[in-house]
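Training component of the fellowship. As part of building independent skills, the fellow (R.M.) carried out the full modelling exercise for a liganded target. The chosen ligand was alpha-D-glucopyranuronic acid. The inputs are recorded below so that the supervisory panel can assess the work.
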Amino acid sequence: ATAFPWQLYNQEVIQEENKVPSYTLPDLLMKSDGKRVESAAEWEKLLRSQTLQTFETEVYGQIPNQEVAVTYEENLLHAKTLKDFGSIREIRFSIEKDGNRIQAVLLLILPDRSSPVPVFLGYNFNGNHTIHPDESISLPESWVANSPEMGVRENRPSPNSRGKKSSRWAVQQILERGYGLATMYYGDIDPDFDDGFENGVHSLFSKNKTREKDDWGSIATWAWGLSRVMDYFETNPLIDKNKVCVLGHSRLGKAALFAGANDKRFALVISNNSGCGGAALSKRRFGETVAAINDRFPHWFCENFKKYNHNEDQLPVDQHQLLALMAPRPVYVASAAEDLWADPKGEFLAAKNASAVYRLYGLKGLQLQEMPEVNKPHIDGYIGYHIRSGVHDLTAYDWEQFLNFADARLK
Ligand code: GCU
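Fellow's submitted model of the complex:
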């Protein structure tokens, strides 16, 4: 049997709807003077940046507004690997600041088209080489988590894991539908362990600096990395920079959402099973809670977020407001029925409640009163949603819905 995270976590975990405490969601349209905003212009002017700022200071930490020097080195792996569907490239990013440097490698797979293509951009968990069996794809040079399944020992990746996560990346489907796929190993930007904020991107900005309560955690650094990839897209004429869809699964879905909130250049934002600190409402305390996530992953959020351990009622924002920061851009929230740790209903309710801001723009958000049936996607509004059957994962089914949603909203 699988060890569910809540069996590892020895606090009581709410797994039944009738145990959810009563809670009040912050009214996302309420101004400090007690009046509600009534237009998109007012939202943009008076509330949007304030809401984003609260997420920065209380949840994820501030992304430093400082320049870095980035160079790109492109390498075409071979032109016709993927059954004549497209080209495959690696782009090595060298990111420098104050004499320190990190390197990250973007894998870019594009369909054969004569005009610029829309792309999906998302991090992978285990290395670019795990998303497709092509032998020319490089293994990560940065730290990877030890894993018997992936053959990782002493934090070095194994070539035996080539293509091992290909079920999560519907490469052929994506290319056939005219989209490109760009992915990067998230550990290239910030290795996912608590090292006191010394390595990865933190080494460029905050080495030997005392940590402030709103200094960024790893989720914010991953979001920052996605924006650096967007900078690169702006230099590449093969890519339609107005149609970049940023997505992520689980912790990387939390990062994709924060990236989409911060960077309006992302045209469409997708959260797959992102759960606590992602699309799920924190105040419900269903499944993973603020205390549970801060205990097991103390490096993901800013220090201030720990004030809300067992104290969610005091949180000045909740995650429906994060989704609302995407407006008027389309956003998609995907849940999985057996993924109770991520609180599917909390993800649905956040999506539903974000709709009020879309309405200000005259757009349909998610027009559903109750959670839809399993495997019945809702993609007709600017907030898409589905709950699929099965466990915590990113599957071909999920991709099919994301592609349909992107076709409907961007084409
Ligand atoms: C853990 C964690 C979740 C996270 C997930 C993942 O289960 O508790 O918050 O989303 O890992 O990234 O797979």
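The panel noted the following from the submitted structure. The pocket of alpha-D-glucopyranuronic acid is lined by residues 5, 250-251, 275-276, 288, 293, 341 (CB under 6 Å). The chain has a mean pLDDT of 95.
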